[in-house]
Amino acid sequence: MDQIPSTAGPLTVADLGRTLVHEHVLTAHEGVRFQWPHLVDRDAELAAAVKQVTAAQAHGVTAMCDPAVLDLARDAAFSLAVTEATGLPIVMATGVYGQHYTFLPHYFQTREIDALVDCFVHDLEVGIQGTEVRAAFLKCAADEPGMTDDVEKVHRAVAQASLRTGAPVMAHSHPVSRTGLESMRIFTEEGVDPAKVLIAHTGDTDDLDYIEELLATGCTIGMDRYGLDIYLPEPQRNATVIALCERGHSGRMVIGQDHCATIDWFPADVVKAMAPNWSFTHIFETVFPALVDGGVTEQQLEDMIGANVRRWLAA
């Protein structure tokens, strides 16, 4: 992919410097927002996103990938507003997250897979939600419920859209259930180049045998939930990254936080209590110094938020 679509217009790969590969300016339940809009304070949500983005820019961040798709309240107009306020290009996605990581909406359950593929291709080639912002990558998810029929349908649709357009793929995973391997199996069956695939949330485990098995498929892995100690405490995350660097895998990892500037899945005070260090800047303020102390080089870290991201997006 020679040019990367974004909310700031097309970017060349060279335009992408320090890039947050997996963060969200907004995550919400689409149905609640549509049915009861009085519950939504859009000005406050925009202010929260601008605050986080501005803080990240102070650490040299020049772009961000936001993998919000169906079921996560992807909102192109909101993302455009964040870019207008901050100047930060947001690289958007198309795909389906899945209801409870299990079901598709009835609309897609009752239609052939081409209905999904065509929607994804529309976002990639025409634009998202009536805007001129095109998606740059595809997103699917397999979590603890595993590869249900609907989840598999989304995976295969994502793969087919990737083959049609050349777009890279990001797959949410649940390492304890080893779903990354199942995702890679399907992508391989469909003929997707593994270099185009990023298996997100691989850093939620310190099972190095599983991670080595996943790396052997040829994908990139996301160590992308720093600040979410509820999934794996930070010292274990750091030890895993350090060990993988020692094994020569620094060029296959990307790093991030999966932070949501706003998320309505829980009350705000509950989110803060569960993840007090969660932000767009936690890796810069706390994680990188700890990794350097553990033997990771500055260049390896820069690659994880730069060259490795660019390689995946451009594959």
The overall number of domains is 1
**Spatial strand order of the main sheet:** 3-4-5-6-7-8-9-10
As a percent range, the share of strand residues is 5-15%
Rg over alpha carbons: 18 Å
> What is the helix tally?
13
User: What's the average pLDDT?
Assistant: 98
N-end to C-end Cα span: 7 Å
The main pleated sheet reads as: 8 strands, parallel
CATH-level-4 superfamily name: Metal-dependent hydrolases
SSE order, one letter for each helix or strand: EEEHHEHEHHEHEHEHEHEHHHH
Textual characterization of the structure:
It comes from Paraconexibacter sp. AEG42_29. This is Phosphotriesterase homology protein. Keywords: Hydrolase, Metal-binding. About 45% of the residues lie in helices and about 10% in strands. The protein is an alpha/beta fold and about 325 residues long. It has one domain: Alpha-Beta Barrel (TIM Barrel), CATH 3.20.20.
